[in-house]
Amino acid sequence: MPDLSPSEIKFSGVRIEAWPLRRPFVIARGAKTQARVVKVELTARGKLGRGEAVPYSRYGETPEAAITLLEQSWHLDRHALRQTMPPGAARNALDCALWDLEAKIAGRPVHDLAGLPVPRPAQTCFTISLGTPEAMARDAAEVPHLTLLKLKLAGDGDAERMRAVRDARPDCRLVADANEAWTPETTPRLLAVAAQAGFELIEQPLPADADRILATIPRPLPVCADESVHTTRDLEALKDRYDAVNIKLDKTGGLTEAIAMHDRARKLGFQIMVGSMVATSLAAAPAMLLADGADWIDLDGPLLLARDRPDALSIDDGWIAPPDPALWG
Questions:
Q1: What is the CATH number of the domain that holds 48?
Q2: 155 burial class (0-12, 13-18, 19+ CB within 10 angstroms)?
Q3: Residue 309 domain-assigned?
Q4: Which range marks the domain in which residue 97 is found?
Q5: Catalytic residue among 39, 104, 150, 152
Q6: 52, 79, 114: which is the final residue of a domain?
Q7: For this structure, is 248 an active site residue?
């Protein structure tokens, strides 16, 4: 790692960007037609480091608040960030920009600086937005070249949605994300339907503050925490409720904490999904460094955009190649 003093780093800028989607992205909480991201740029020794994040209203974040936080904290190094800046999107953008800057100055890739394996191509989930069972089955059938699909669910009608998509795509792997839309009463039945339909995973079936029941009911397939888990410190309390955890850099507050969380989750016996919000390749690229040790990858944000950044991640038939250093890392 380069001997880089925080005093050498210049805050080149931070801005909010809007990236249009190919089609509306619909989940249980609502729909959106664009990805609003925050991009940070840092410079030192003639090199540029970039990071991108997506502030999420579910966690009380806004792009405007993230910019204020970044303008107050940009002078911190990665280690100080974990001590003084709260986890979340703002810290993620800054942490990833620092990693990128350090790699550019050192002339070595981030995975080398971080002691991680050389990243390899990885298969990502492709998201089927929430809709009627018929619409979701049609959307799944329209992508026969993609063989790992992730359904967005909403509670009422989910049994029919899961069955319809399975009937339309008997050939593919399926996971589903309920986005906290199920209830303690409906969860056992819907988990059974998911297992019968050959789903591999159900993500966050219950609200984060009402998931204790998962410790007391049968789980016929792995259940993954998303909204219930943000950082390493959350893991211990979830061991009896969940079988897997979704590690997202926008929740952990950057790659630095995500690496630590990944290692701890494995030691505790959790399966791992590596995910991201809907954003450009610049946001997904750092998460690719964790793909080698994950059970599921959900980094399809760039595929949902109408356009992406220059030097974008190469995604071919659902397989993502490691990022080009011109993009990040």
A1: 3.30.390.10
A2: middle
A3: yes
A4: 6-114
A5: 152
A6: 114
A7: yes
